[in-house]
Amino acid sequence: MKKNKIYLIALFAMCIGCEEVLFEENLTEVKTVLIAPSEGVSVTNTSVTFSWEAVDQATEYRLQLAQPNFENASQVIVDTTVTTTNFNTTLVKNGYQWRVRAQNSGSNTPYTTASFTVFENEDFSAREVLLTAPQNNEIINTTETNLKWQAVTAATLYRVQLLNGSDEIISDKTTTGTSLPITFPEGITKWQVRAENNTQSTLYTTRTLTVDSKNPKKPVATAPVNDASQSVATVTFNWTREAVEGTVEFDSIYIYKDQQLTQLATKTKVTSPSDIDLETGATYYWFLKAFDQAGNQSESSDVLRFTIN
């Protein structure tokens, strides 16, 4: 009887998994609706944003771009999968055809296709530099990073500037390529790029980057003190830590059941003081580490031991 009961529970769990798959909507009869560029339009900006309507139950979208079309493609310029309903790239003067389909783990819609033409603005100053990396408002923990952008037709060089919080220029460099390794100061800095030729320049395209390369300070555990003993299962943990200027910091507590720190009882993000419920009749070993948004981490605090009777 016990074996039958276990079998039924396992079968029920399998059926639940089957239901989850079966209830995921089949997208084969759904249409993906394109927003822009629409069929037959002419685009005068070489920075083109593709957009379409969201499809219910879709987890991602497959986007392809061909020149001049898919039937007689000289090249497929873009073939990518995104989770958003837009995609941006820079194109040269030419005819193009693009298509999108919505997808989930079990099905996809048919492709929806549209053709369009790109006419480069004769006015060089009206063109746009499309920045590709790092992403806007990204947080990093190293001061040197490689800035990247897409090429602008007829540009002879690119001017790259860093600006402080008062929008004062703190670095001004030029390059003929479409990337530049550059050292940033700590904190929040604007970076911007414009294209230039012999007589004109485009407007700057700007992003913000935060650099935090400093590790948080080591936490100091204060309670329970080493070799403490108590009878209640709820343990109140206290500690102190000196804050370091930079991105937001937080603490994680690690509690083990053995001195070798191999049997983890719990690990969680905490603030001081924190109450944690543990099993009675056991000895525990605990310490803390601090982290920040940039991925920096502190040294571990000293390991302390306590017993719950």
Automatic annotation (TrEMBL):
PROSITE patterns referenced in this protein's UniProt entry, alphabetically: FN3 (PS50853)
Name this protein carries in UniProt: Fibronectin type-III domain-containing protein
Lineage, broadest ranks: Bacteria, Pseudomonadati, Bacteroidota, Flavobacteriia, Flavobacteriales
Annotated Fibronectin type-III domain residues: 33-123
